[in-house]
Amino acid sequence: MTRRWNYDVFLSFRGEDTREGFTSHLYKALCDKGINTFIDDKLHRGERISKELIQVIKSSSILVIVFSENYAESKWCLDELAKIVKCNKKDPEVQIRPVFYNIDPPEIRNQKGNFGKSLAKHEKKLKNNKNKVQRWRDALRKAAIASGWHYKKGCATYKSESDFIQNIVEEIANAKVNLTQLYVAEYPVGINSRVEDIESLLDIGLDEFCVVGIHGLLGVGKTTITKAVYNIIANCFDGSCLLENVRENLGIDAGIIKLQEQLLNDILGNGNWRVGSKFRGIILVK
Known about the structure:
- The structure is a single chain.
- With 286 residues, this protein is an alpha/beta fold.
- The protein folds into three domains: 7-178, 3-Layer(aba) Sandwich (Rossmann fold); 182-238, no CATH class; 241-286, no CATH class.
- The protein is built from 13 helices and five strands.
- The chain has a five-stranded parallel β-sheet, sandwiched between helices.
- Strand 3, helix 4 and strand 4 (95-101) form a beta-alpha-beta unit.
- Helix 4 (75-90) packs across helix 7.
- It is globular, with a radius of gyration of 21 Å.
- It starts with 6 loop residues before the first strand and ends with a helix.
- The mean pLDDT is 86.
């Protein structure tokens, strides 16, 4: 059964930084593309995140967070981000996609520069509620390691800000078609603790290549755990693929070619790769 979302995209941002510029242009571009987008200044802002807003977050497929220079100054933004990360943890189908707008991702991950200063100020004011600030710190790290988009004025990667926005819109439009969670199990009893153990071993966010081996007797749940982990971490990368039945396919050339084509098509996302021979496939994968 295909899950139905109320919104394709939920936009979270600091209004004072980007409402009248970047975010409004991004919102219009998404809507023009036919992407049903919720912009979070439609709801009344109080001291706490309302149940209505939390429900909107839960019912949105892709949660786009626009990180700007002064984002961490806003306690409202940090509270909203913490709710977004919590929703993603409970339901991996809800995806987090950060936009780093004139801010470098390591500044958020490591909480340096303006982000470090703002959090330090919050800690002074909230001496009796250190857990709240820690939740904000954890949420910032979690969101900042997800696969997203980075724009800095003067950078040669994009011709202009509008070119950058168009790139985001095209990726989201493709994601609407291509993003499908893997079926794990009808009754995944006792799987969460094992998934968390694997996730901690992978330590996503470090700029290192990591391999984790899962071994055990036939039928103990290795593939089930693998698929559950994949569903959680796939959106941390620009491309992802889960190759099944590798041993069975490695015995014949047709099987190897099948694996090579799946790897290329899943990661690159266009579905047009044809390998032809396993030796050509080796070169294409490289």
